[in-house]
Amino acid sequence: MLHKRIKRIVIFLSGLFVAAFGVGLIVKSQLGVSPVMSLPYVVSLALPISFGTCVAIEQILLLAGQKAILGTAFELKSLWQLPTAVIFGLFCDVALMSYSYFSLNLYEERLAALLLGILVLACGLSLQLIANVSVTAPEGFMLALARVFKSTYAKVKVIADWIFIATSVGLSLWLFESIEGIREGTLISALGVGSMVGLLLPVISQRVIKVLE
User: Fold this and answer.
1) Does residue 34 surpass a pLDDT of 60?
2) Around Cβ 50, how many Cβ atoms within 10 Å?
């Protein structure tokens, strides 16, 4: 059992690593980041703090939000989200550092980076789902809201995504008098990542489950 648990943790960490490089490509495209990443992206532009650090801080705050929402119903296993947030933030910075050695000048290049980023991100998310070790803090926060308001995850996610976008737009206009991080890529990411996970998950599962046996 311990050996299998270690395998699951390794696969989960691999999923975080791959997902971070997908997020990095989406950021590198400069065509807009996903709704949940838009707020840390705007903050990272305004403060001398890396994007990965801002991602980790956002996720830690969302974990704290889960505790506040659920109260005594908060489960201790959810604390796995704390190291997950820090590790994922670190991986995001590693990814962006790796991508800093090349530039994307043409719109076609940026669009290709965006689409490739969505594919890579979906691969990483699929690995995390298969490992079934923990959820990320944003997912946990939305699940907590769904539980409290007796709604579905899908409905809560739509509302939460719009709140993230509205907050990011408002903060961006206040700080820069322009909209940063929210573009056509935001919509493409919001619609494309989930669909791509649905396509990739069965294929990746067939290969990874053999490793877990």
Assistant:
1) yes
2) 17
Residues 101-143 have pLDDT tens digits of: 888 989 999 999 999 999 999 999 888 888 888 888 888 898 8
Average pLDDT along the chain: 89
Alpha-carbon Rg for the chain, nearest whole angstrom, is 17
Taking the C-alpha atoms of residue 189 and residue 211, their distance in angstroms, rounded to an integer, is 30
Q: How many residues does the chain have?
A: 213
Distance CA 72, CA 70 (A): 6
Query: What would the DSSP string read from start to end of 98-125?
Result: HHTTS---SHHHHHHHHHHHHHHHHHHH
Which ranges of 47-152 does DSSP label H, i.e. alpha helix?
Answer: 51-70, 81-99, 107-131, 137-148
Q: Compute the distance between CA of residue 57 and CA of residue 75 in angstroms, rounded to an integer.
A: 21
Q: Which class for 9: exposed (0-12), middle (13-18), buried (19 or more C-beta within 10 A)?
A: middle
**Torsion angle in degrees (nearest 10) through CA of 53, 54, 60, 61:** 160
Q: Whole-prediction pTM value?
A: 0.90
Count other C-beta atoms under 10 Å from residue 41's C-beta.
23
Helix-then-strand count for the chain, H and E: 8, 0
∠ CA 170-185-43, nearest 5°, is 35
